[in-house]
Amino acid sequence: MSVKFAISYSTSFNGTDPDRLIRFAQHAEECGFEALYVQDHIALYPGASYGAGELPATLPYFDPLDCLGFVAAATRRLLLGTGVLLLPYRHPVVLAKRLATIDVLSKGRMRLLTVGIGALPGEARAVGVDFHTRGRRADEAIDVLRLLWSGGPDGVGYHGEFFDFDALCSYPKPLEVAGLPIHVGGSSRAAARRAGLRGNGYFAGGMLEEAERDLQIEVARKAAAEAGRDPAALEYTRWGSADLSAEQVGQLEEHGVTRIVVNLTTASAEEQHDKMSEFAERFGLASK
């Protein structure tokens, strides 16, 4: 079994107790999980809803990058992930520095950045972004991030629809010369194509039939091939429950899944730790 296992922590479900967050992350690391993923919303409002239903406006989402920096300081090995960071609502010049800073301070663990375009029109309006252009804005932002991370002391320039600059330098750089991997999350064929054209992986979400999921990962791989990229190098991440069996994981592997992000639905911290331990024992994570 070659699939990797990560774990998700949601402050909208678990609350904002910093001690609980750190204990969760440290236990995940001890259990052998590859990474910790956190979610993102900048601002909510009454009536905000999308496919999964209405979101209570008082849900306490931490800023994901501040949250991951906090986790990094209390762990040693755990990789850091977002599922997903709302990319169109953040300026990539600022974001390039923030991400590189976390990567340097965590000694190279900001490896599972996953970006999405958002689904709430009111959230886009609140930050001055045209909801209908968020896909194009995200495409440019990915290109700008990579350009800034690759640029030298003479600076780099970019002239696009949304971002424009000349001879710009962004330091520090991520620890790896190639910059940070950028995965694309979503539940549409457009998101899958974006992953193939620009991403290091596709994190598939939503409530879709398996046939549609198979089609989307093929869209991603085809787009990668058309862009001259290696489709086999594209990672494929999916959500999973803490009750997954070895047979179910094997079926996901047959569909090309390379990483499963486990979502815990038990309420108490103790129950969550027990579920993590049971899962880790079931799949031998600590020995990997």
Description:
It is built from ten helices and 13 strands. With 288 residues, the chain is α/β, with parallel strands linked by helices. Helix 7 (189-198) runs parallel beside helix 8.
Please outline what is shown here.
The protein has 288 residues and is an alpha/beta fold.
End-to-end C-alpha gap: 11 Å
Task: Count every beta strand, where a strand is a DSSP E run of 2 or more residues.
Answer: 13
Helical content (DSSP H or I, runs of 4+): 40-55%
Widest beta sheet: strand line-up: 5-2-1-13-12-11-10-7-6
How do the helices and strands follow one another from N- to C-terminus? EHHEEEHEEHEHHEEEHEHEHEH
Beta-strand content estimate: 15-25%
What does the average pLDDT come to?
97
User: What is the gyration radius calculated from CA atoms?
Assistant: 19 Å
Structural class: alpha/beta
User: Sheet bearing the most strands, described?
Assistant: 9 strands, parallel
State the main characteristics.
288 residues, nine-stranded parallel β-sheet
List the helices and strands and how they pair.
Layout: E1 4-9, H1 11-14, H2 18-31, E2 35-38, E3 49-50, E4 53-54, H3 64-73, E5 79-82, E6 85-86, H4 92-105, E7 113-116, H5 121-126, H6 134-150, E8 156-159, E9 164-168, E10 182-186, H7 189-198, E11 201-204, H8 210-226, E12 235-241, H9 246-254, E13 259-263, H10 269-283
Parallel strand pairs: 1-2, 1-13, 2-5, 6-7, 7-10, 10-11, 11-12, 12-13
Antiparallel strand pairs: 3-4, 8-9
